[in-house]
Design a protein that fits this description.
Strand content: under 5%
Helix content: over 70%
Largest sheet: none
Distance between the termini: 31 Å
Structural class: mainly alpha
Order of helices and strands: HHH
Shape: elongated
Length: about 100
């Protein structure tokens, strides 16, 4: 196994990291507050999307196959998104628990 000499300079890495982080939105916030803000924004988006799907389900024509397929597609996309956020939250909790051990 060979050693990559470009990785030997940790000080060079620490000099470039602040500029990368400073260019991101919310750079002065803690990781916890950024995560909570992202989860809250996703939750609000999912609630809006859920309301739209529920409204479409109340008003769709069951004899029209195209509207049924569109409703099913919207519901599937919603389900995948909610599942992804739940998985991210579970993984974040697992990572924090591992760091605290």
């Amino acid at each position: 196994m060979s050693f990559d000499s470009s990785l030997s300079s940790i000080s060079a890495l620490s000099k470039t990291t602040p500029t990368v982080l400073a260019s991101e939105p919310g750079a002065g916030e803690s990781l916890e507050s950024r995560f909570m803000s992202a989860v809250a924004n996703m939750s609000a988006g999912f609630e809006t999307q859920r309301g739209d799907i529920a409204n479409a389900a109340m008003h769709y024509d069951p004899t029209d196959a195209a509207s049924a397929v569109e409703l099913q597609t919207r519901l599937a996309d919603y389900s995948v998104g909610v599942s992804m956020v739940a998985t991210m939250a579970r993984k974040a909790v697992g990572a924090v628990e591992a760091l605290l051990r």
